[in-house]
Design a protein that fits this description.
alpha/beta, Rossmann fold, ProC C-terminal domain-like fold, 2 domains, 9 helices, 58% helix, 11% strand, pyrroline-5-carboxylate reductase activity, 6-PGluconate_DH-like_C_sf, P5CR_dimer, Pyrroline-5-carboxylate reductase dimerisation domain-containing protein
């Protein structure tokens, strides 16, 4: 669907798109474009609408890269459809997305921020992780061991977060156990690492 909407199309192409999606659920992964905007601007619903028109249900559902291992966090936009599509369409979409991980339904005003946190932040977090891995290799560990340690560390961290432990509590806990971590965290704070990530999220 994304590739169809992002390419230039003729009137005949538009009509083919309309005929293909009429009376169907269209799940879009288009970034920063609401279901309402897609219906008004991208898909020629009004142009080819007939008297016996059957509505199209547009739902935005954006997974992250972990969809490849069925561990995605998919964000679904709960924006109300102007055609009054039954709620069961959202249930069907949720059921489908749950097959590849977890799902979170959010209102339109929170959608972009949720997508950035669920998906975009994975890309951003890969940057400091790469730095940690480079440092570990420089200390003599093999790349294979570094990846194994890191994967298990991230799994454990994820479990702690799901259990309700906040990032601040994680930092404090480890600093209390290992005093030298206080100095390392202080150095990172002085370099503005946390502020840089916060700004990247809101930019």
């Amino acid at each position: 669907m994304n590739s169809i909407l992002q390419t230039s199309r003729s009137d005949n192409d538009d009509k083919c798109v309309y005929n293909a999606i009429e009376n169907r659920v269209v799940i879009s992964m288009l970034p920063k474009r609401s279901a309402g905007e897609i219906q008004c601007n991208d898909v020629p619903v009004q142009k080819y609408r007939r008297d016996d028109y059957k509505p199209v249900c547009f739902i935005r559902a954006v997974p992250n890269s972990a969809v490849m291992v069925c561990q995605s966090m998919t964000v679904i936009d709960t924006e109300a459809d102007t055609e009054g599509i039954p709620t069961r369409q959202f249930s069907s979409t949720t059921w489908l997305c749950e097959k590849v991980g977890k799902v979170k339904l959010v209102p339109l005003e929170q959608f972009d921020a949720s997508v950035m946190l669920a998906g975009g932040s994975m890309t951003m977090m890969a940057l400091p992780l790469k730095g940690v891995l480079d440092g570990a290799v420089a200390l003599g560990l093999t790349k294979r061991d570094v990846l194994a340690f890191s994967a298990q560390m991230l799994k454990g961290m994820a479990e702690l977060l799901e259990d309700g432990t906040s990032p601040a509590e994680l930092s404090e806990s480890m600093s209390n156990q290992w005093n030298y971590m206080t100095r390392k965290l202080s150095n990172l704070e002085k370099k503005g690492i946390r502020v840089a990530f916060a700004e990247a999220m809101t930019d």
